[in-house]
Structures are given as structure tokens and as C-alpha cells.
Automatic annotation (TrEMBL):
Source domain of life: Bacteria
UniProt protein name: Alanine racemase
Function field: Catalyzes the interconversion of L-alanine and D-alanine. May also act on other amino acids.
Active site: K50 (proton acceptor), Y267 (proton acceptor)
Annotated metabolic or biological route of this protein: Amino-acid biosynthesis; D-alanine biosynthesis; D-alanine from L-alanine: step 1/1
GO CC annotations, alphabetized: cytosol
Organism: Rhodoblastus acidophilus (Rhodopseudomonas acidophila)
Gene3D superfamilies: Alanine racemase, Lyase, Ornithine Decarboxylase, Chain A, domain 1
EC number from the UniProt entry: 5.1.1.1
């Protein structure tokens, strides 16, 4: 793959150590896809690349996955589907958020498949196909318990009457709590989905997201739809992560100071030194996706520096955070600090921030210097 074009500011100064560095390991991404593909067995394995590939960059991620053999992609929006079509003329591209009113021609023109999830969407797509005299492809989303998107059971008969107006390419549904392998509703959803599949004419079926692929029931059907696991998230919370790390984030120390017991640090003086401490200020804040909530909960975030886990102290501010480096090996201005890497994973940081690793990924933002390796 050719060198990725970086914004001028990234080329200009690799030594701007006031800015954090986000590294995306594309070979680890490819390896994760291969692991999931192998797991899917006879089923095909798609890639979910919505929200700019979970914040990691649609173009570099999709290009790497295409080169690795992935031929099915899921995005959320029509505009994301159009961006992806500009990268690949042949891949099958599904838009999970369905058919916005009046957009059918835009999908059809670029051979993009809306995932139709309600009767009004199906009616509009069928009417468009009849008017054009062509059966364009689309997917059908069946609700099996989420009550978010997807066709309700009461609408199945009306939907069935419209199917021959277009080319149904896929029938799919989505797990409510696949990351909890013990949840009885997983089994119930699989059964409801199987019943729906039996009612509709034969077409490829898809149910499993990342965690769904690790359920004992292993309901792979014809196509699996992992997202999070591709990017290194753990699809089996509570057990070892079978995926390779894709993302690392490092920030740099701007200054170091020693403070006495009883002195406070950060906005609103929410933290007070229990004893003499050595603090470092790093160039990373909530505007960089280091969520302020990671400094507000019972268990705060830690970073890894000087061979030790260093707690964040005081409130995370927009561009800066303060860490306690008293227990670390000597550190100084310009030294690097690991936010995400070998010692700290996105699931850890999600937990410390009162959220999930998914939100950590999608909040990383565009402010870091971005480095893609393994392309
Ligand atoms: C986001 C999404 C996925 C991917 O889920 P992960 O948990 O990231 O693997 C699959 N299917 C649907 C419908 C989704 O919205």
C-alpha cells in the first residue's frame, strides 16, 4: 500500500511533543479479520466500518481489509456508504441505518444496499424499484428483541407481499447482549431469528456481531458482522482477549513538579496530595478523547509511565491531565506516557471512564498525530 497522505502539520513536525500520537496497526487489524474469518468457518465474514471505522479511519481500514480478502462491509449512513464506494467498486456495502426518505435513487445509483428495517422503508424501496423497472438489492432487518431498528413480527405478512419488487440480499438481526454469554435472551433471539428466516424466502442470513461470534451457540448463519473485535476490542469480556491490539495512544510529559502533602491539583481542587508527591502534566485531555469522566469515578484512569501504573489525579481538563509519577522511575519533560498500549487496553480505559471500549475508540477524535503502521 502506498504511503498514506498525512496532513501537512503531521509531516511538518514529528517532534511536536505537545500532541499525543495515535498509532493504528493495520497488520494487527488484518490478523484480527483472519482470526474471525477462520472462526466463521463456512460463513462469510464482513467488517463493520461505521463511524469512520470506529474512529480509526475508514479509508486506511477499509483498504487493508479489502486487501486481506474482506468483501462485505457494513456502515451506518448513506454518506459513509458513498465514501466507501469511492474506495471499492465491487464490495457489497450495507447501510445499517436504513433508507432515509427520498434517498432510494442515491443507493441504487452506487449499488449500495439499504438495510430496510420498517414497513415504510420497504414500501418506499419497493415502489422505487417498480418505478425504475429494476430489482435493486437491499437487506431486511428483523427485530428480535432490541426494539430499535428492524421489522416487527406483525409487519411480516405485509413485508412478504413486497419482497418480489426488489432483490433481497440478506436477512439480518442484532443481539441485545451478546457480550454476556450467560444471558438467556441470546438463545431466545436466535430462535426468533430462525423462525423469521423460515417465514421469508431463502436468502443469506446474518446475526452475529463480534461477541455473538464467541457465544457457545455460535450462530454464524451465512455472514458474520464483527466490528469491535477487528479493532482489538475484547469480544469475550471477563476472559482473555483473543484479538490483537490495533490501537496505541501515547502522550508526552510537559512538566514535572513536586508538591507537599495537603496541596491540591487541577480544577476545583478535587484532589489533595496525601503526602509529598511528584506530579507530571501531560498533553492530553478530554478534547483528545481522554474522557473527563475517567477522573470523576470511584476508580480513576491510570497511565503507564516509567515502568509503573500512574494514577490520574485531579480533573482531566480539555488539553491536559495530571498524573502521579511518585512510584515511577525518574521521568522528565518530553518523556512518553502510555495511555493505550501493551499495559492498558481500550476495555480498561472504558471501564475507568464509566463507559465501554467502543466509546473510547469512537471518541479518539482527529486531534492526535495519527500514524498507520503495517499497511
Ligand atoms: C455495530 C453493529 C455491529 C458490529 O458490532 P460489534 O459489537 O462492534 O462487533 C453489527 N451489527 C449491527 C446491526 C451493528 O449496529
Amino acid at each position: 500500500m502506498p504511503e498514506l497522505a498525512l496532513p501537512a502539520e503531521d509531516r511538518a513536525d514529528g517532534r511536536d511533543k505537545s500532541r499525543a500520537v495515535l498509532t493504528v496497526d493495520l497488520s494487527a487489524l488484518a490478523q484480527n479479520w483472519r482470526v474471525l474469518k477462520r472462526r466463521a468457518g463456512d460463513a462469510a465474514c464482513a467488517a463493520v466500518v461505521k463511524a469512520d471505522a470506529y474512529g480509526l479511519g475508514l479509508a486506511p481500514v477499509a483498504k487493508k481489509l479489502l486487501a486481506t480478502g474482506c468483501g462485505h462491509f457494513f456502515v451506518a449512513h448513506l454518506s459513509e456508504a458513498e465514501s466507501l464506494r469511492a474506495i471499492t467498486p465491487n464490495a457489497r456495502i450495507f447501510a445499517l441505518n436504513g433508507l432515509p426518505p427520498g434517498s432510494a435513487a442515491l443507493f441504487a445509483r452506487k449499488d449500495l444496499y439499504p438495510v430496510l428495517g420498517s414497513l415504510p422503508e420497504i414500501e418506499e424501496w419497493a415502489a422505487f424499484c417498480r418505478a425504475e423497472g429494476h430489482k435493486f438489492g437491499a437487506a431486511l432487518h428483523i427485530d428480535t428483541g432490541m426494539n430499535r431498528l428492524g421489522l416487527a413480527k406483525a409487519d411480516f405478512p405485509a413485508a412478504l407481499n413486497l419482497l418480489d419488487a426488489f432483490a433481497p440480499k440478506l436477512i439480518m438481526s442484532h443481539f441485545v447482549s451478546a457480550e454476556d454469554a450467560s444471558a438467556p435472551r441470546n438463545r431466545a433471539q436466535i430462535e426468533r431469528f430462525e423462525q423469521a428466516c423460515a417465514l421469508f424466502p431463502a436468502m443469506p442470513a446474518s446475526l452475529s456481531n463480534s461477541s455473538g461470534m464467541y457465544l457457545a451457540e455460535a450462530p454464524f448463519f451465512d455472514l458474520t458482522r464483527p466490528g469491535y473485535a477487528l479493532y482489538g476490542g475484547n469480544p469475550t469480556p471477563g476472559s482473555d482477549n483473543p484479538m490483537r491490539r490495533v490501537v496505541s495512544l501515547e502522550a508526552f510529559i510537559l512538566q514535572v513538579r513536586d508538591i507537599r502533602a495537603g496541596e491540591a491539583a487541577g480544577y476545583n481542587a478535587r484532589w489533595t496530595a496525601p503526602s509529598r508527591r511528584r506530579l507530571a502534566t501531560i498533553g492530553l485531555g478530554y478534547a483528545d478523547g481522554f474522557l473527563r469522566s475517567a477522573s470523576c469515578g470511584e476508580i480513576g484512569a491510570e497511565v503507564f509511565a516509567g515502568g509503573a501504573f500512574c494514577p490520574v489525579v485531579g480533573r482531566i481538563s480539555m488539553d491536559l491531565s495530571i498524573i502521579d509519577i511518585t512510584e515511577a522511575a525518574p521521568l522528565q519533560r518530553g518523556d512518553r506516557v502510555e495511555i493505550l498500549g501493551d499495559a492498558i487496553c481500550i476495555d480498561d480505559l472504558g471501564r475507568w471512564s464509566g463507559t465501554i471500549g467502543y466509546e473510547i475508540l469512537t471518541d479518539l477524535g482527529r486531534r492526535h498525530k495519527r500514524v498507520y503502521v503495517g499497511g
